[in-house]
Design goal:
Elements: E1 8-12, H1 15-18, H2 31-35, H3 54-68, E2 72-76, H4 79-82, H5 92-108, E3 111-117, H6 123-126, H7 135-151, E4 157-162, H8 164-172, H9 184-206, E5 212-224, H10 229-243, H11 263-267, H12 274-278, E6 284-297, E7 306-308, H13 329-340, E8 345-350, H14 362-380, E9 385-390, E10 410-412, E11 419-421, H15 423-435
Parallel strand pairs: 1-2, 1-9, 2-3, 3-4, 4-5, 5-6, 6-8, 8-9
Antiparallel strand pairs: 6-7, 10-11
Helix pairs in contact: 3-5, 7-9, 8-9, 13-14
The structure holds D-gluconic acid (GCO).
């Protein structure tokens, strides 16, 4: 049994939320650069042109992470920085930037982890249909090959695509995230192509010996509103959508069609051999869980026949995101993934809590304290959990929510771009120095 002291702690960042420098040194536009230009898409009407200015301040952020005692620095690569058009010519300055980030991490003794895709598709590829167009699989393969050839000599741990369900659900079904597309046809095609891309990216990276390649999945604990058959079935549908659709095809289990009828729509895009190609023996699963949802049957909701009972109507504590504050999902999902395969390595590749500007930081400390207890529970159950990456270091651009939710353990002054440790960062520094083996 692994002990809590043996877990490795790190942090996760994403390019579109932090880098800024959105058009600097040859970077092409991404779908988030164009989406934030549209009216009423971002709650506080902000954009990520500067974000936390990680592009210019990466050394400072890496220094902060090291000083706190974190051992892993997970960041994502902006596809349009490497390939401004999504395909074709490589932007050498983009490659240089990530080389500098990687080298600085290594110099400072913190391990760099790469996420190849955290939602910022090059706009040029979106112009051709983005994830809806099957050609994306080939384009992604070429992109990952470039990343492999430039960075795998120094980066051992890789995450393929961050949270397929949120990326495709938000961007191609509900239209609340870039590129703002809606509808079942977009969703079905994009889902299938993203899964194929994940499998393809994995194979490309595994051509290099000793790389450790996993993926990061969004997990939301789903519960039925009542014991009625209708609600139970509705909750199963949402569970299949949120917690199985982007996982089970990789395990060779196919799409979860019996619990999720909309899978029939996806089948239209499945070609001979696709389901075999999708089988992927990831080296680890990255679990990312933030909240719980309670679901009841709602016949009038197309394709799903289900809807969420809003936390505010359930009398539970919520964060500024409107999400129920719920840490028990951690041990629940760790055990659930261990049931797929006991030996597989598991990481919590994101977890965190958003607070509003003047909210009491003690709440976040309490949240992480509960998470430590949750991890202990899972370890007591012999789950193969290796570590935890926090979401996130510096307060950043929270997609359609703009800069209002503050997920960082470090605050950002938007005028001066100055960083300041919050109480949580100080608490964590003490915790990590005490648990050192
Ligand atoms: C996600 C993304 C992050 C978010 C974070 C808070 O998990 O949705 O990976 O980019 O910012 O989760 O919503």
């Amino acid at each position: 049994m692994r002990k809590i002291e043996e877990l490795t702690w790190g942090v996760t960042l994403a390019a579109a939320q932090t880098e800024g420098a959105y058009n600097k040194d040859g970077k092409g536009l991404s779908i988030w650069d164009t989406f934030t230009e549209k009216k009423y898409k971002i709650k506080d009407r902000s954009n990520a042109k500067i974000a936390t200015d990680f592009y210019h301040r990466y050394k400072e952020d890496i220094d902060i992470a090291v000083a706190i005692g974190l051992r892993i620095f997970r960041f994502s690569i902006a596809w349009s920085r490497i390939l401004p058009d999504g395909v074709g010519e490589i932007n050498a300055k983009g490659v240089d930037f990530y080389n500098k980030v990687i080298d600085y991490c290594l110099e400072k003794g913190i391990e760099p982890w790469i996420t190849t895709y955290h939602w910022d598709l090059p706009q040029k590829l979106q112009d051709k249909g983005g994830w809806v167009n099957r050609d994306i699989v080939e384009a992604y393969k070429k992109y990952v090959t470039i990343l492999r050839d430039h960075f795998s000599d120094r980066v051992k741990n890789w995450i393929i695509i961050n949270e397929g369900i949120v990326c495709i659900g938000g961007g191609y079904f509900l239209g609340v995230h870039a590129p703002g597309k809606r509808g079942i046809r977009n969703f079905s095609a994009a889902t299938h192509h993203l899964l194929l891309a994940q499998a393809t990216g994995f194979k490309v990276l595994k051509q290099v010996d000793n790389l450790c390649v996993g993926t990061a999945v969004s997990c939301t604990k789903i519960e039925p509103f009542s014991k009625s058959k209708k609600d139970v079935r509705a909750a199963k549908r949402i569970d299949a959508l949120m917690n199985r659709l982007f996982i089970e095809p990789h395990l060779g289990m196919g799409y979860p069609e019996s619990d999720l009828p909309l899978v029939k729509r996806i089948q239209k895009y499945v070609k001979d051999g696709d389901m075999d190609q999708m089988k992927t023996d990831f080296d680890f699963w990255g679990i990312q869980t933030y909240t719980r949802e309670v679901i009841r049957a709602a016949w009038y909701i197309p394709y799903l026949g289900a809807m969420q009972v809003k936390p505010k109507n359930r009398n539970v504590a919520t964060s500024i995101m409107g999400w129920e504050t719920y840490t028990k999902g951690i041990s629940y999902f760790l055990k659930r993934f261990a049931n797929y395969d006991r030996n597989k390595s598991l990481w919590l590749t994101e977890c965190g809590m958003a607070l509003a500007k003047n909210e009491d930081e003690e709440k976040r400390i309490e949240y992480y304290t509960e998470i430590i207890d949750e991890m202990k529970l899972a370890l007591n159950d012999n789950v193969n959990l290796k570590g935890i990456l926090l979401w996130t270091l510096v307060d950043n651009f929270e997609w359609a929510e703009g800069y209002v939710p503050k997920f960082g353990i470090v605050s950002l002054n938007h005028k001066t771009l100055e960083r300041k440790l919050k109480k949580t960062a100080i608490w964590l520094t003490t915790y990590l120095s005490n648990v050192k083996l």
